[in-house]
Specification:
single chain, Jelly Rolls, 4 domains, 6-stranded mixed β-sheet, 20 helices, PA14/GLEYA
Length: 840
């Protein structure tokens, strides 16, 4: 087990803790602190602080720390990224890796996989590992979990969050936060609020109506505050109603700290668009990551001190922030010599990663293909870009330096051993020139994924007006017919020495240089150039283009990394089993960039269709955190969704494929057939300026039902290797009044021949509301494990808030008298039982 990175507690801190009774209730503590003791300690410390010392607690003093006050025994407070693992150590004052050898952590499945388990116990297990490892790494605040909803399937950070439904996210964030904080680490629920796109994530202005805000985008945060007592909340990058979310009076002062009575800390994400006065007066407590030369230049540093000294900002405003910071520090035991120490990279944590993804894998379709029979399978063809890809060091701030990561291919090898022949092939798409595969690209976006640096220039200008990264070496102008001047740069690293042929398809003027030397140029026609390159050596490539359509840069490399359709189809026809591991990677799902469409990259659709044609029993497992189109889906007979699976993904995938684990995951998102079917796209509400949330409360499956659009696979869908029967739906009453609760029970029977688990879902239909409500709203669920032939009862409870909508005329929650209908089923589209009741 790795050793903790935190230093020993200073003597002054230990003395203060012993004298004041500070510290958390840990297993070997004899007594817990009362709230009165904590508040008394806070006031005693506050009274001794100078103005400068107070200011020092409201902004960063390094990339991930807030200053301590040694003379008062207050230690430096350490934060770390970590929605699904504690991020590796970076330099104190830069984003460069600290190049340590003791900062490995368990790579857990991301939160979309947790959401797919539909199991609060898995959310708690996830939080337990994360909290324990953060504490062992000497962290005080772990920046997660994330609860922004998957409104847009193109959103680059969907994989970090808990799906598209506010109720599901609310029920899973609570056990996650509680488990994290049980280890004397503060959770930081993020990103508050309305963070639903990466396109111009700092400048886009979110402006939903009040009912949509309350019913859809705030419930998970409210649950984290009121039920889980989250110690910190991270604000969003985007603007809300015209100003940055971190300094939004309505979000912070009226709702978070007003209505909800939140006593904890609101901290920024790194480098947000705030100003000193609004941030100070509207509830921001800690500022992190601002891009300035000195930490003294942060908005809540010297500029805030100056405003207090000249009387523009009352010192009492600063005192409130300091009290909140101290309250968090006391609550997580930073003043406690008996503080928990945590564990890291243990066998139990690795098993937890495997257990979570095993429950989160979703069996989308199965025409008597799965599970595979290990005894009869003697040859397996494995294809797809995710077969041997590792995902831990990608995605953005959520990257994890894993002790190991089992790929799908390695999982199969572990499960099948040497007696089964496993052939691995990479398919070559036949649909035109493809961009240079990421396998050969050494240049990296800051999220850790292969990428190319793209710059755009005004005619005749040498300085770009746009400079960013893109996934591959293909470019389509923003407005067809309008001329653009483009520069594309990347670093190539060949895998095999020998002759490589660089190829371009273009409509405009294009030139190419390699290590600064001219290689080729063309005026509107396709071209190619052969050159000898050495394996493992880096080559700097620069492409300059002027045109009004598009270009693609590809190449032909020596070796047998890729094979054509005739070869892989022949191999598929002769194999006992064909398994394709495809979908997305963190070149697609990543912070700071949204996808442009739902098409799987690299011509995967063509290859999958060919495989199914050659072998109808081809098993397709899609990885990724957001939907993809599947034009071949009607012909597929075995289809699974594996998300990003964490460090034990390959072993867990093999467990499910060969029936050692019966899949029980359910989709926490809707998988659309087409991008145009999605609300934000259909309503033309996705742009870099304003997000009006035109669909209102009809997010995700609610929109598909309202518009009567059949998705590819519906929200809540997921099959099993066994079957379940639903019986005996019973309600505790036929009539509910006022604040009364309603208890709902249903009997589930495993009618198949395998043990398995079923997620029972409760959807509510309000037939009497004065406002338009969704045809179904998720308001309950329960997961039950049953042996063959066994029956069990699932119980769910509905309260007033479950029945209510946000009444904008009363500015409060309301339930209109009348008839409600309950729908119990295996997905939103697979209702098995229904029953009505009255509210009066």
């Amino acid at each position: 087990m790795d050793q903790p990175l935190s230093p020993a507690l200073p003597v002054a801190l230990v003395t203060l803790a012993l004298l004041s009774g500070c510290g958390s209730a840990s297993p070997d503590s004899s007594d817990a602190r009362s709230p009165e003791q904590i508040e008394a300690s806070i006031e005693a410390l506050l009274a001794q602080m100078t103005l400068e010392e107070k200011i020092s607690l409201t902004h960063a003093n390094s990339k991930f720390t807030v200053a301590g006050i040694p003379r008062l025994g207050i230690p430096e407070m350490w934060m770390s990224d970590g929605p699904h693992g504690v991020r590796y150590e970076i330099d104190r004052h830069s984003w460069a890796s600290a190049e340590r050898e003791d900062d490995f952590s368990t790579y857990l499945p991301p939160l979309t996989a947790v959401a797919a388990t539909w199991n609060p116990k898995m959310a708690a297990l996830h939080g337990d590992v994360l909290g324990s490892e953060a504490r062992h790494r000497g962290k005080d605040v772990i920046l997660g979990p994330g609860v922004n909803l998957a409104r847009l399937p193109l959103y680059g950070r969907n994989f970090e969050y808990l799906g598209e439904d506010p109720y599901l996210a609310s029920r899973l964030v609570v056990p996650s936060v509680k488990a994290i904080q049980a280890h004397d680490v503060a959770a930081s629920v993020k990103h508050y609020a309305l963070n639903s796109q990466e396109l111009n994530r700092i400048g886009v202005d979110a402006r939903p109506d009040e009912r949509t805000l309350r019913e859809v985008y705030l419930p998970a945060f409210e649950a984290a505050v009121k039920e889980a007592n989250t110690q910190t909340i991270m604000g969003a990058y985007n603007r809300v109603y015209g100003t940055n979310a971190n300094q939004n009076h309505k979000l912070v002062m009226e709702i978070l700290k007003g209505e909800w009575g939140y006593p904890g800390v609101l901290l920024t994400d790194w480098n947000v668009d705030i100003n000193t006065y609004d941030a100070a007066m509207n509830g921001l407590d800690i500022e992190m990551g601002t891009d300035v030369d000195s930490y003294d230049d942060y908005f809540l540093a010297k500029p805030l001190q100056a405003m207090i000294e000249n009387g523009r900002v009352p010192e009492s405003v600063l005192d409130d922030k300091v009290r909140r910071v101290l309250r968090v520090q006391h609550s997580i035991g930073m003043m406690d010599p008996n503080r928990r120490s945590g564990e890291r990279n243990t066998e139990a944590h690795q098993q937890a990663a495997r257990t979570i993804i095993s429950e989160g894998i979703v069996l989308l379709k199965n025409q008597q293909v799965l599970p595979l029979d290990a005894d009869s399978v003697k040859s397996v063809l494995v294809m797809g870009p995710n077969a041997d890809k590792r995902h831990a060091l990608g995605g953005g701030s959520s990257e994890v330096k894993a002790l190991y990561e089992v790929t799908p291919l390695e999982g199969l090898q572990n499960r099948l051993g040497d007696e089964v022949e496993i052939t691995v092939l990479r398919g070559l798409s036949g649909s035109g020139l493809g961009p240079i595969p990421g396998d050969f690209v050494a240049s990296r976006h800051w999220t850790g994924t292969p990428a190319w640096q793209l710059a755009k220039f005004e005619p005749g200008q040498s300085e770009p007006y746009f400079d960013d990264w893109q996934v591959d070496s293909h470019y389509q102008v923003a407005t067809p017919g309008q001329t653009e001047q483009i520069r594309l740069r990347g670093t190539l690293r060949p895998r095999t020495s020998g002759e490589h042929r660089l190829l371009v398809e273009t409509d405009g003027a294009l030139s190419l240089t390699l290590d600064g030397q001219p290689l080729l140029s063309t005026e509107g026609s396709d071209a190619g150039q052969s050159i000898t390159l050495q394996a493992g050596q880096d080559y700097q490539l620069e492409l300059n283009y002027q045109g009004s359509d598009q270009f693609t840069l590809g190449w032909q490399a020596p070796g047998d990394l890729f094979v054509d359709a005739e070869q892989y189809m022949a191999a598929a026809a002769g194999a006992d089993a064909v398994i394709y591991f495809g979908g997305l990677s963190h070149a697609d799902d990543r912070e700071s960039i949204d996808r442009s469409d739902l098409v799987m990259p690299g011509g995967q659709d063509e290859i999958i269709a060919n495989l199914i044609k050659a072998n109808p029993n081809t098993v397709v497992m899609i990885g990724g955190g957001s939907p993809v189109e599947m034009p071949w889906q009607p012909e597929a007979n075995a289809l699974l969704w594996g998300w990003y699976g964490g460090m034990e993904a390959g072993n867990a995938y093999a467990d499910v494929l060969f029936g050692d684990v019966n899949p029980s995951g359910k989709l926490p998102i809707t998988l659309p057939k087409r991008l145009e079917d999605v609300a934000a796209i259909a309503l033309d509400d996705y742009n870099a300026t304003d997000s009006l949330y035109k669909e209102g409360v009809f997010i995700g499956y609610r929109w598909f039902e309202q518009q009567e659009i059949a998705p590819l696979f519906p929200f809540g869908h997921g099959l099993s290797y066994t079957q379940f029967r639903y019986d005996n739906l019973a309600l505790s009453s036929d009539t509910v009044q006022g604040e009364e609760t309603l208890t709902v029970t249903v009997t589930i029977t495993n009618t198949g021949e395998r043990a398995g688990s079923e997620v029972v879902q409760l959807y509510l239909e309000d037939q009497a509301a004065k406002v338009e409500r969704p045809a179904k709203e998720l308001k309950g669920f329960g997961k039950i494990a049953l042996a063959p032939g066994e029956s069990g009862e699932v119980t769910m409870t509905l309260g007033y808030r479950d029945l209510a909508y946000w009444d904008v005329t009363q500015d409060d929650w309301a339930v209109d008298p009348g008839r409600f209908q309950l729908h119990i089923g295996a997905s939103v589209a697979d209702v098995r039982l229904s029953k009505g009741f009255n509210y009066q």
